[in-house]
């Protein structure tokens, strides 16, 4: 898989030690990046930040849907030739075409800025493989998951500290990093890691850099993200995938497209097409080139993963 533009991420000045601050900072930082995506927009929504329920009609008329992506291989990224690709954009292309919207336009931002960017109209949908969880379901609505996933760590070659899950990270007092806005922040905190001690980096490449340079012992991400990012590293490896504990129980995540809370009609129309692609095997065919296997195909629903939150 080709590397994305910006693959040589320089972490200097972008790392932060506090996750929630980093998420808020991400929202503020979004402005500059968001301007890129908003450039092609012909109309913004009303003051309430909704589209009165006819967003799909508007997208059909425009012929283009703006996708929020986070430069994360293999989920959603710009390849070395400048083309948008990844499991979520490729799936978006297939589904939106079936919905009568022929083109997709990427709006790159940091992962932690995806929900703020969606809710401030910088793009129409989050196409970044975002995990569905109750905290996020209180802010956006999700389609049903298009894949399921375990976590894994980027560690130095040979895994010198013997880090295989979040419990090990706490027990061995390892220096821990993950990405801005990542679900992995909460998994480490649930295992007993102090939130203010987490090194928050902009993305997986910055995480790899931090491990290689010895600033941290471990960077946590999805199993496919860590596997992809270590491919070009002589100094780091990815650990065996594992299920993080949520509420004390091993948890399998499901990743999905996110929509603004008012856009239930668009989300529902998207779900109808998604389920057709699941049934006819097309979904597996679209995701396979990005490293997704039968083991990542899923029947999980947004409703069950939203738990106590709104599922839309
Ligand atoms: C695709 C993805 N999922 C996780 C999340 O949703 O928080 C993070 O690991 C960031 N990337």
UniProtKB/TrEMBL annotation:
<dbReference type="InterPro" id="IPR001638">
    <property type="entry name" value="Solute-binding_3/MltF_N"/>
</dbReference>
<dbReference type="InterPro" id="IPR014337">
    <property type="entry name" value="Ectoine_EhuB"/>
</dbReference>
<dbReference type="Pfam" id="PF00497">
    <property type="entry name" value="SBP_bac_3"/>
</dbReference>
<dbReference type="InterPro" id="IPR006311">
    <property type="entry name" value="TAT_signal"/>
</dbReference>
<protein>
    <submittedName>
        <fullName>Ectoine/hydroxyectoine ABC transporter substrate-binding protein EhuB</fullName>
    </submittedName>
</protein>
<feature type="domain" description="Solute-binding protein family 3/N-terminal">
    <location>
        <begin position="64"/>
        <end position="294"/>
    </location>
</feature>
<keyword id="KW-0732">Signal</keyword>
